[in-house]
Amino acid sequence: MSISAIKHDPRVADVEVSDTTLSVLLRDGRRISAPLSWFPRLASASREDRTVWELSAAGHGIHWPKIDEDLSIDGLLRGQPAH
Known about the structure:
This protein is an alpha+beta fold. It contains 3 helices and 6 strands.
């Protein structure tokens, strides 16, 4: 019998920010979604500024340079809103 191990890779593959939701696709296929209201800087930023993001912490975080906002995947996985 063959058992294949599930490979967890909690690094960011893609980010989508709508007017109501932050959604992060991880490299292992998981998707994390949270209400945009949990992240006041993102919620108050323009749609255009929310689309400009980059990886940080070797893919374990997200940085929005135009907003100066940083979120960690660990915090998102724990369901932790921004302060």
